[in-house]
Amino acid sequence: MLHVTFSEIGGPEVLKVEPFELAAIGPDEVQVRIEAIGVNRFEALYRRNFYAIPPTLPSVLGVEAVGIITEVGDQVKGHTVGDRVTILPLQTPFVGTGTYATHANVPASTLVKSIEGLSATEEAAVWMAALQAYNLISKVPVDSGDFVVVTAGTSPVGSALIQFARDMGATVLATTRTAARKRELLDLGAHHAIATDDEILSEAVKTATGGKGAKVVLDTVGGTLLAQCVFSLAEGGSVFSYGAQSSPDINAARVDVPLVALDRRSLSFVDLFELTDVPERFDAAKHYIRSAVASGAFKPRIDSIFPLEEVQAAHRRMEEGSLGGKVVMTT
Fold first, then answer.
1. Is 191 exposed, middle or buried (0-12, 13-18, 19+ CB in 10 A)?
2. pTM of the predicted protein model
3. Which CATH code fits 2-126+301-330?
4. According to CATH, where is 3.90.180.10 located in the chain?
5. Using one digit for the tens of pLDDT, what is the confidence trace for 175-192?
6. Adjacent-strand bridge partners of 268
7. Contact status, residue 51 vs residue 250, Cβ threshold 8 Å
8. Helix orientation angle between 127-137 and 156-167, rounded to the nearest 10 degrees
9. Tell me: domain 129-274, CATH 3.30.300.20, correct?
10. 63-95: b or e for each residue (b if 16 or more CB lie within 10 Å)?
11. What is the pLDDT of residues 85-98, one digit of tens each?
């Protein structure tokens, strides 16, 4: 058995792959032999102590993975040895003993049965991004004909948002920094692509919407773009911010928006756990995601695949930005 640990704050170089032995599982836990692991930006922030929750050193990592159940606690129902499952996130920087590993003990409550027809690697690119995307797109009703803006549309959550919003009938305006990637957004299903290095977002949105503005803007960039997101809204519209990619330290991210721009408009910060902590919404999200994959409305995108032993390289790729999908590790 191998897992990833870090004993000091720093860059990818602090991550170590080390042998370990799992303790006996608890009555409400299962043991999973992990096949594929989704890598997330917040894990890189956590390693650098730039996340909302500071690490307790030494620390493990990992909130999502796909694998096979090898052992089941005596109070676990609905899961059996041999099932292929996906581990979903909890309100901690890691789940159970951490999913950056070949094996992990995790609460049975974090598991969903794997989606039929997907490989472990494909499914490792689905759930975290899709859950956040569903959380965002369901904050207010989105109907046919509504205008929805998605920033950083080539990111894992951004690409899921484009596909979900289109599936719900919305007209989707998606952003990327450079014009070279606009074609990528259109191929994902966006009706309009905007390059924020070359275009003023609010002006491009007003042009595309005939001066009306967007009902919803879903933003993961933050910084100076956030004000432009607010200026892009129609009266009664909402901005939901969920990432602050422009800030290397989530704790240092700030909002600089003219107060009058929020007249009859709203701006909120969103976290994934407001979905996962509400059983009705969580169940609706899981049902929608499975249906969207089955119908072809949502196709997960993989940027790159690394073996677990190359976790440092996986994190370097994550921190390079300009991803074309999810970074995945395999065991």
1. middle
2. 0.93
3. 3.90.180.10
4. 2-126+301-330
5. 999 999 999 999 999 999
6. 240
7. yes
8. 50
9. no
10. bbbbbbbebbbeebeebeeebbbbbbbbeebbb
11. 999 998 889 999 99
